[in-house]
Amino acid sequence: MQAIETKVIPATNTKETRVRATHPGNAEAITVGASSFNFIEEAHEHAAYLLLKKLDWDGEYVGGGTKAGMAWVCKSGGSPVVEYSEAKELFEELLKEESK
Q1: Quick check: 97 pLDDT over 90?
Q2: Which residues constitute the domain of residue 70?
Q3: CA-atom Rg of the chain in angstroms
Q4: Cys bridge to 19: 28, 40, 47, 63, which one at CB 3.0-4.6 A?
Q5: Which letter, b or e, does each residue of 60-87 get, where b requires 16 or more Cβ atoms within 10 Å of its Cβ?
Q6: What pLDDT sits at residue 14?
Q7: Nearest to 58 by CA among 74, 47, 71
Q8: pTM for this one?
Q9: What does the alpha-carbon distance between residue 4 and residue 74 come to, in Å, rounded to a whole number?
């Protein structure tokens, strides 16, 4: 199962608050500025979508909150789509599969 994690990078004296999207291999990442979004969840969603496109992954991804930020897991195949919803069970299932 493919997954993407997003987390907030706090603002510094020279940079705005950002959201960084990575996947478990951490070989590729995307960072987006959060100031152009009304809600931080939108920045998480946008970062996840951009990383999906960069990785050329297909499928419908749902996101849910974690202690570190958000996790996005593949719900079905097809064109890349991300949507924010409660996906805690899917993420916990992914963690169980990875720990085997």
Answers
A1: no
A2: 3-99
A3: 13
A4: 47
A5: ebbbbebeebbbbbbbeeeebebebeeb
A6: 95
A7: 74
A8: 0.74
A9: 9
